[in-house]
Amino acid sequence: MNPFFSNRRLIVLLVCLIFLVGLIGYSLSEQRTLSWPEQFVQDSVGVVQSAFSRPAYWVSSSLDAVGDIRDVYRENQVLKAQLEEHASVLVERNQLEERNAELEEALELESDLSDYTSHHAMVIQRSPDRWNERIGLNVGAQDGISEDMAVVTSAGLVGKIREVSQFTSTVQLLSDQDAANRISARSDGEDTAFGFMEGIDEESGYLRFTKIDMELEVEEGDIVSTSGLGGIFPSGITIGEIVSVQSDEYGLSQTALVEPAAASHQLDYVTVLDREAPGGDDNSEEEEEEE
């Protein structure tokens, strides 16, 4: 080969290398203006990157949002469960506090009626059809319960034992309309008036205190309690407060409407009183009856 062409190729190669090195150095310089080829390339790359980066960013943001929503939902479910548990605990605590208060009142009542044997009982049955008539207790003959024993709360008289089985018993409430549901009572006001509690007045919902002597002064606000006559009930157990007084339909006696002291619509625990004292002696003679 001709040496001239070989030298020429070498010279061209060296010139290209020098040009390339210069171009690289020029490109790396910080302060310079981009040439139009560089601007074209850079703008083209920027457009392509923008076209791909925006959808990618939107997809990524959407996935993050879905993940956040899922996390918030899970946190809400956890918080909801905690709130329900907290509410359940509060309800249970309130119920326990109410039961403790009722039991404490029952113990106080027992100390006040130390002359009578007390049997604490829990209400286990109450029929909606006979809501104002009967309740069932978890004590019976095996616990010393017998018919006609007084049933009370710390507020006052509730009723009397009507039926007894070996392990349970049924209470006839003061509000029962049964004609045989009569309890000897007295009012303590300006005059002491005796009469009978005979069920409930259907129109007003108050208890009926009947057979009150027309000559006696009985007024609104007088307290009605058990008289103790006949020995079935201890004397002095509060029944309620007189709210009105009127003559009976024949004008022979007075009838008073009494607001009961014991809330019979909400009974959980009651106390049954044995009419015999702990020593076993009968408290008094049989209850007087009036036709």
Automatic annotation (TrEMBL):
Residues 123-273 form the Rod shape-determining protein MreC beta-barrel core domain. Residues 79-113 form a coiled coil. The keyword Coiled coil applies. Keywords: Cell shape, Coiled coil. InterPro entries: Cell/Rod_1 (IPR042177), Cell/Rod_MreC_2 (IPR042175), MreC (IPR007221), MreC_beta-barrel_core (IPR055342). Pfam families: MreC. One of its GO terms (biological process) is regulation of cell shape. PANTHER family: CELL SHAPE-DETERMINING PROTEIN MREC (PTHR34138). Belongs to the MreC family. Involved in formation and maintenance of cell shape. NCBIfam families: mreC. This is Cell shape-determining protein MreC. It comes from Alkalicoccus saliphilus.
